């Protein structure tokens, strides 16, 4: 999923279930409660007050949005859950499966001789695909168009790091600015991330024959104003995340027309105990390293669903 600010692409978690984690339904229901709360806030203040910040204050806001704190080396867990749909010309949208994931990150201070102190965020993330009815982990999935059963390749991207450090001064040496919408005691930020780049599964001639990866990630994040503007750390932040994208490669859809829409909500905290089952169990069993973020000086190239799937295919063909 996910944008620098996603202390998640993109709910308040409910009571624990009998297995010791939070249920997927609680995450989705909490997202509904979050939206209901938003309606109450908007009703009380129908027109947003646009507040603009600059310089050091804008920098500190940006760091807390991304890291949850101004302190170095503190692990932040962004947990999110939602649903994935198909959209194919001439047919009804299908609820294909649910998603449940976590982004595990930390931040560290960096310095630049011209721009002064800044910060860098490093993270790794897992997103599981779940049965649309039972919320059980899907390791095999029946493609409703082809009728074939395919192996599911869950998101396990390591790393997902900030590409460049962020400073109080922008690239031109001017003070950084940021604008937030205020409704009552809550501050909101929105960002759209259009993606258009060579698909790692394609060849060297994509500009001639097509195949370029084309998607958009949409993030709407909210924060308690008193914490974002006055505290060192945020107790909790919230995100709504939407992805509009091409078919996932493991679905084996080939050139079939259509797109996918994923809609999710999430929350970020410092306590990994909010990670719900079945995600907690899968992390413990398959991805134990994902409970901790990478080191702040991690220099590895970022992974995406497409680069990970390419490695999966390459490994499968050599076995």
Structural commentary:
The protein is built from 6 helices and 13 strands. The protein is an alpha+beta fold. It has one domain. The radius of gyration is 20 Å and the shape is globular.
Largest sheet entry:
11 strands, antiparallel
Give the N-terminus to C-terminus distance in angstroms: 30 Å
Helix proportion of residues, in percent?
10-25%
Q: Count every helix, treating DSSP H or I runs of 4 or more residues as helices.
A: 6
Principal-axis shape equals globular
How many separate structural domains? 1
A few lines on this structure:
With 319 residues, the chain is an alpha+beta fold. 21% of the residues lie in helices and 36% in strands. Strands 1, 2, 3, 4, 7, 8, 9, 10, 11, 12 and 13 form an eleven-stranded antiparallel beta sheet that branches.
List keywords for this structure.
two-stranded antiparallel sheet; 13 strands; alpha+beta; globular; 6 helices; 319 residues; 11-stranded antiparallel β-sheet
How are the elements arranged and paired?
Blueprint: H1 24-44, E1 49-54, H2 55-67, E2 76-87, E3 94-112, E4 116-130, E5 140-142, E6 149-151, E7 155-157, E8 166-167, E9 177-183, E10 186-197, H3 206-209, E11 213-224, H4 225-230, E12 237-245, E13 259-269, H5 279-286, H6 305-318
Antiparallel strand pairs: 1-9, 2-3, 2-13, 3-4, 4-7, 4-8, 5-6, 9-10, 10-11, 11-12, 12-13
């Amino acid at each position: 999923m996910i944008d620098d600010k996603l202390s998640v692409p993109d709910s308040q978690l409910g009571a624990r279930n009998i297995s010791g984690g939070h249920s997927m339904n609680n995450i989705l229901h909490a997202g509904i409660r979050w939206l209901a709360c938003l309606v109450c806030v908007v009703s009380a203040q129908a027109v947003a007050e646009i507040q603009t910040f600059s310089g050091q204050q804008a920098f500190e806001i940006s760091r807390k949005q991304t890291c949850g704190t101004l302190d170095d080396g503190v692990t932040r867990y962004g947990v999110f859950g939602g649903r994935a749909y198909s959209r194919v010309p001439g047919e009804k949208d299908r609820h294909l499966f649910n998603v449940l994931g976590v982004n595990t990150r930390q931040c560290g201070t960096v310095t630049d001789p011209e721009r002064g102190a800044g910060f860098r965020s490093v993270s790794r993330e897992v997103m599981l695909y779940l049965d649309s009815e039972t919320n059980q982990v899907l390791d095999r999935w029946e493609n409703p168009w082809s009728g074939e059963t395919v192996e599911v390749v869950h998101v396990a991207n390591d790393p997902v790091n900030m590409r460049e450090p962020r400073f109080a001064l922008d690239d031109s040496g001017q003070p950084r600015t940021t604008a937030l919408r205020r409704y009552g005691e809550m501050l909101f930020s929105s960002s759209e991330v259009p993606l258009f780049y060579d698909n790692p599964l394609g060849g060297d001639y994509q500009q001639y024959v097509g195949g370029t990866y084309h998607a958009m990630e949409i993030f709407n994040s909210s924060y308690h104003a008193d914490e974002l503007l006055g505290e060192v750390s945020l107790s909790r932040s919230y995100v709504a995340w939407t992805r509009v994208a091409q078919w996932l490669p493991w679905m084996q859809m080939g050139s079939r027309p259509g797109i996918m829409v994923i809609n999710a909500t999430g929350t970020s905290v410092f306590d990994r105990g909010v990670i719900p089952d079945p995600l907690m169990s899968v992390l413990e069993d398959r991805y134990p390293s994902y409970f901790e973020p990478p080191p702040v000086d991690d220099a590895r190239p970022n992974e995406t669903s497409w680069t990970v799937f390419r490695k999966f295919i390459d490994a499968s063909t050599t076995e």
